[in-house]
Amino acid sequence: MKLNQIIVLFILVFFGITIIINIGSTQFPVNEVSYLDDVLESNGSLNVVTAIYLDYRLYDSLFEVIVFFIAAFGVSMVLNKLPKSTLESQEEIDYEYDAVDMRMSISGNIIFFLSLLFSLYIMITGHLGPGGGFVGGVIAGTGLLVISGNRDVEEIETELKKMRIHLIEKIVMFFIPASGFLGLIFYHQGLKNFLPAGVPGTLFSGGNALLFNLLIGFKVFVGTWTILYNFVRHRGSI
Amino acid sequence: MFSALFWSLAFLLSITMLIVKNLKTAILFFGLFGTMTSGAYMFMGAPDVSFASLALGAGFTTFVFLIAIRNTGKVIVGYRSAPYLIYKGVRDELTGFEFEILNEFLKEENLKAEFIEIQDDEAFDQLHKQCDLFIGGIIQEKKPEINTDKWLYKEILETRLLKDSTGNLTDLVRMKEKIINHEAEADDFEYIGESHYLFLFEHHRPEMARNFEEYLDKLKKTNQFESIVRRHIG
């Protein structure tokens, strides 16, 4: 095994053992807490659903993100081994993109920016109203595919790679469980909401909700794009 | 009340999805189904779930399915072996000018082809029952005659009609083959007139014939058509 594999394995084992020990020593409240009664004082989110999945049940959401990460990772790993679509030769792509409809090339960009704006909005206001990171990420990732109507998907992927988006994705993936440890260090409680609850109804309220919604949204955006990009690459254009 | 309306619409859409023949239409109905369930969740007081249903059911999954159904259609192509146009090359793989043009066209249309070799000329009239397309150096003047009720034909390449020493009609590529194989001399052939090689489309597929004509026009505008001709026929 290489050194970096050993390091990753060590980190995983460390995380696993700490989480197991932490859960083993935690007293889970039985029929004592009613989330709906004191959600505004203890969490500060107007949207109770967000309060539950990003605070009280963050542990569940954590694995949901991990499952999505593994799904996207698996798709790109399996499809990378298969041969590329036969439409890949440069000549044909040039020919194909000459024929793209004018309406498509203009509206594609507009639709993408609208969907990006909308996804950012529902990520940021996830704790104030319906929405959240998962939905926002899917909307942005699918919206990105719409501009493949007038631009080659490979070109989009190259630009995203230039922005080191896949590296940032992995850092974010690391940061979400790591933030659970911040709570463990400062409050002696794993996955604790370590940011202040704030005044309910304002932007900076709901503790970690805003931060986590943005992180998860980014994560899901990259995952969605990875899945769609790999499918398009091996099937030809839409 | 409203949610019940949306649920019943979703139920109707789900049945429609199973009934429709066209896969693309079925997928669009699936997207609509996601939208309807999203509306139902919204009126049931779960806007978060509604958003997720809209983004995943109507957006993401529709795209994934649209990508997935590429290369699903199948066309049965009958062919008669013709030198330079469609013939079995090395390792028994089909090659030739008509084969390449057809392959490019089917790739653009996301269709897969199954090739059947037809040797019997007389059975020509019955072929439309088993083939969607018939190719292989077909000339209109040559027998058997094409029944225009059963077949739609598209001209793909000009050729010349010639008469050989025994009085049979023949055409350029077949003449070329005979000369190269030293079966005949160039002087044996007598020029009769101009003609075209044809692609025959089964009369139930006018859409495919029209698409093919558009595709051919596009191909002729670029240099691609000439380069394919040069590569296969010279």
Question: What are its keywords?
Answer:
heterodimer; A: 238 residues; mainly alpha; 71% helix; flat; B: 234 residues; alpha/beta; 6-stranded mixed beta sheet; two-stranded antiparallel ribbon; 8 strands
The helix-and-strand class of chain A reads mainly alpha
Separation of the first and last Cα atoms of chain B: 72 Å
The number of E-state strands of chain B comes to 8
Q: Give the count of structural domains of chain A.
A: 1
Structural class of chain B: alpha/beta
Q: What is the helix tally of chain B?
A: 7
Biggest interface, chains and residue tallies: A-B, 28 and 21 residues
Largest sheet: number of strands, sense, barrel closure of chain B: 6 strands, mixed
State the distance separating the first and last CA atoms of chain A. Answer: 41 Å
Integer average pLDDT of chain A: 80
Question: Describe it for me?
Answer:
The complex is a heterodimer of chains A (238) and B (234). Helices cover 71% and strands 0% of the residues of chain A. Chain A has 238 residues and is an all-alpha fold. Chain A has one domain (3-87, 101-233). Residues 87-98 of chain A have low confidence and may be disordered. Chain B has helices at residues 2-19, 23-43, 47-68, 97-108, 172-180, 206-221, 224-232, and strands spanning 73-79, 87-88, 94-95, 111-117, 133-139, 151-163, 169-171, 190-202. In chain B, a hairpin with a 5-residue loop joins strand 2 (87-88) and strand 3 (94-95). In chain B, helix 1 runs antiparallel to helix 2 and helix 2 (23-43) packs antiparallel against helix 3 (47-68). Chain B is elongated. The termini of chain B are far apart. Chains A and B meet through helix 7 and helix 10 of A and helix 3 of B.
